[in-house]
């Protein structure tokens, strides 16, 4: 290697050691340490949001609360990290609502396909009264929901063929999140769904264990799925919220003024994360095509066909949930469009 390269390595090593040193020192001085872990990698807006949360909390508490941020499933998959919050071995994680539904089943409403017509309506409903009612239901699981962030509208990719309508789902093995509604919705469209933690997804796509998956464009691009997937369709079949979760037992140990700091920081960082996420999702479809993926546009008729194919599943799940809450969600969606 050229001497400069070596020199850079040494410089990088010194920088890292310094950063870690500073980190260790900060951790030693802090009254509280928050271990915050997510599944997406450090380029994704989800991680930028976590860094923003860290910046605000450490500044507002003058370092009394120290935040350690982890990405790419370093602390495990979404379910593992939520269980770690319940056990007190981790303080923050930001999963999609789909895995949360395994802890609080009412959350499955947010994975009803085609529930939210756009992100503005989603923001208004989630950040309003009815969104808070769902967050309050997390307390019994020793989870404190502080804010809704954004994963985004989910789109289908696969390595087999162009998907332009429901008929094209036939026979495709699609990885879904670990959520029964997702499984039943993809079965209703003729696909062969397989539930899998996000941490195993890239390898499964690479090895062909599954033909495809569904996630927002930002995730498809930033996680490099274009390297192992050939086709992408803008199905936009589900708007997926993230929920900023804190271990409730940890939250309850914080003095009231620090609770206010983390409450506001989660909301503030969420606004920032949503903005970054929307910019990213708009820009990354072009990047996917530049990386060689074939883009298939889903027509309104084809999307309506998908909605109708899934409708019996949505009705079945809606009947299982708290009817007042379901009606409140639909009413809030209607009001948000007036
Ligand atoms: C990352 C996941 C991801 C989700 C999925 O941990 O599992 O496909 O969309 O964002 O939460």
From TrEMBL:
<protein>
    <submittedName>
        <fullName>ABC transporter substrate-binding protein</fullName>
    </submittedName>
</protein>
<dbReference type="GO" id="GO:0055085">
    <property type="term" value="P:transmembrane transport"/>
</dbReference>
<dbReference type="InterPro" id="IPR038404">
    <property type="entry name" value="TRAP_DctP_sf"/>
</dbReference>
<comment type="similarity">
    <text>Belongs to the bacterial solute-binding protein 7 family.</text>
</comment>
<keyword id="KW-0732">Signal</keyword>
<dbReference type="Pfam" id="PF03480">
    <property type="entry name" value="DctP"/>
</dbReference>
<feature type="region of interest" description="Disordered">
    <location>
        <begin position="1"/>
        <end position="25"/>
    </location>
</feature>
<keyword id="KW-0813">Transport</keyword>
<dbReference type="InterPro" id="IPR004682">
    <property type="entry name" value="TRAP_DctP"/>
</dbReference>
<dbReference type="InterPro" id="IPR018389">
    <property type="entry name" value="DctP_fam"/>
</dbReference>
<dbReference type="GO" id="GO:0030288">
    <property type="term" value="C:outer membrane-bounded periplasmic space"/>
</dbReference>
């Amino acid at each position: 290697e050229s001497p400069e390269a070596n020199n850079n390595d040494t410089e990088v090593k010194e920088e890292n050691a310094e950063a870690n040193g500073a980190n260790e020192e900060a951790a030693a001085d802090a009254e509280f340490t928050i271990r915050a872990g997510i599944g997406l990698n450090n380029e994704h807006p989800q991680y930028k949001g976590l860094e923003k949360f860290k910046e605000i909390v450490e500044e507002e508490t003058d370092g009394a609360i120290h935040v350690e941020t982890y990405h790419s499933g370093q602390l495990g998959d979404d379910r593992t990290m939520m269980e770690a919050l319940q056990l007190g071995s981790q303080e923050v994680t930001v999963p999609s609502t789909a895995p949360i539904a395994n802890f609080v089943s009412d959350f499955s409403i947010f994975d009803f396909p085609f529930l939210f017509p756009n992100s503005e309506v989603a923001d208004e409903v989630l950040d309003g009264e009815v969104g808070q009612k769902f967050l309050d239901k997390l307390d019994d699981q020793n989870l404190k929901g502080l804010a809704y962030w954004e994963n985004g509208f989910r789109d289908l990719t696969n390595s087999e063929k162009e998907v332009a309508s429901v008929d094209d789902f036939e026979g495709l093995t699609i990885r879904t999140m670990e959520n029964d509604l997702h499984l039943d919705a993809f079965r209703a469209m003729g696909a062969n769904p397989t539930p899998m933690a996000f941490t195993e997804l890239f390898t499964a796509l690479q090895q062909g264990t599954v033909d495809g998956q569904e996630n927002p464009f930002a995730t498809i691009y930033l996680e490099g799925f274009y390297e192992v997937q050939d086709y992408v369709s803008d199905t936009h079949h589900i708007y997926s919220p993230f929920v900023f979760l804190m271990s409730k037992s940890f939250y309850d140990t914080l003095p009231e003024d620090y609770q206010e700091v983390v409450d506001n920081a989660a909301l503030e960082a969420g606004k920032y994360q949503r903005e970054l996420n929307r910019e990213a999702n708009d820009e990354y479809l072009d990047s996917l095509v530049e990386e060689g993926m074939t883009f298939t546009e889903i027509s309104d008729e084809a999307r309506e066909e998908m909605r109708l194919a899934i409708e019996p599943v949505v009705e079945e799940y809606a009947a299982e949930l708290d009817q007042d809450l379901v009606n409140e969600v639909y009413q809030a969606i209607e009001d948000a469009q007036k």
